[in-house]
Amino acid sequence: KAGVTQTPRYLIKTRGQQVTLSCSPISGHRSVSWYQQTPGQGLQFLFEYFSETQRNKGNFPGRFSGRQFSNSRSEMNVSTLELGDSALYLCASSPTVGPTGANVLTFGAGSRLTVL
Amino acid sequence: DQQVKQNSPSLSVQEGRISILNCDYTNSMFDYFLWYKKYPAEGPTFLISISSIKDKNEDGRFTVFLNKSAKHLSLHIVPSQPGDSAVYFCAADNAGNMLTFGGGTRLMVKP
Question: Per-10-residue mean pLDDT for chain A, 116 residues long?
Fold first, then answer.
């Protein structure tokens, strides 16, 4: 069973540019979440999609957006990049609520974005 | 407002001994708590979870304890192995759709 795939793995952008990151969830998983990991802030929730609908959104500015396609694949976009957007962006998928009731997310390896 | 906190940024333990990683939370509405392990250049990997109605859950060398009155949970690893060296994240789930993570604790197990 293939895991969560994120592309690209590494990318470098300059301030003011925009970036699109892609995530392919585990087959059969309909929920896709995005998290930002930075050394100072840890793992912070960006947003979560289920059946092409955004169900939850974290406390990030409107420059951060995402979408989910009918095949559950997801993309996130960051516009007008700032230096502080440099981070590891993690995508995670889940079959919504598992048998234990806990929301067990399976993470991809992440996309490391560097903004110069 | 950090709802989930891991106050120890790092922990060093000798191989074969017990590793105890701690986590505190403030929101009493959390339903589940989870522990994830993360190696460099990889995404976090799920380790173990516990429901808020339980006080202990065990899976092999890993045991998680929950003290609801103190809003505190801990992960015990016995015996610790060098391969356990990683960053461990505590996370809390209150809606089934998003997790709130602590800042992580870097565990180093010395051979």
Answer: 91 97 94 90 90 91 96 96 96 74 87 97
Q: Give the pLDDT confidence of B22-48 residue by residue, as tens digits.
A: 999 999 889 899 999 999 888 999 999
Structure tokens at B59: 């899976």
Q: Does B31 touch chain A (CB under 8 A)?
A: yes
- Cα distances (Å, whole numbers) of residue B87 to A29, A43, A86, B39: 26, 12, 20, 7
Q: If we measure between CA atoms, which residue out of B95, B94, B91, B90 comes closest to residue B107?
A: B90
Mutate to test the interface with B, among A23, A50, A105, A111 (most CBs of B within 10 A): A105
- What is the pairing mode between strands B99-101 and B86-93? antiparallel
